[in-house]
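ok so I'm stuck.
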Amino acid sequence: MRQIVLDTETTGLSAAGGDRIIEIGCVELLHRKLTGNNKHFYLNPERDSHEDALKVHGISNEFLRDKPKFSAVVDELLEYLSGAELIIHNAQFDVGFLNRELELLGRQALARHVGSVTDTLAMAKELFPGKRNSLDALCSRLGVDNSGRTLHGALLDAELLADVYINLTRGQDALLIDSGETQGTQVTGAAALDLSAFELPVILADEQELAAHAALMQQITKPAKGKSA
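replied:
not stuck anymore, here's the structure
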């Protein structure tokens, strides 16, 4: 199964209000293993980022001036995402922005290009109700090293989310048999073990053990007035 862990950075919080995508990071998982076949784009959003957004991602407006527009990378991005399951933290946010970018180009919504979308934030809320479930909080809870995350970055966050997702789903997925012919095969249940092929030894108590047992039973029987049997 091919999965793409995806994250975006944006000029602000409102796609409907005109905010745009400035960075897209994608990490590929094949049979739950990192392949190294990743995608990363910086984009010219044709507008400046809000001050609050700049504090989050630290990507300056000047840095983005000579970067390609979304229209220049859309075909490459959609080909890469085609048919895959997308893994996104707070998927409604990122999908909303991607759909808005596609709409501006007269293209079909993201759902028409990918297999499905899995929201790790929704998963985390079910697994850890009442707790903080931000990416940083999940990294801390699940033992994922995020010490290099001083600012948000789409590719780094996608890489961290891939580790978080694998940890979140470790108990839900079958083991993978990592061998030549069976690589990626999911084991859906343990095979029944036929015990008839084994000769099980019968070990009898020795005299010392029998005597200790008799003494213990005598101690139990006295308070019970002989009604322990």
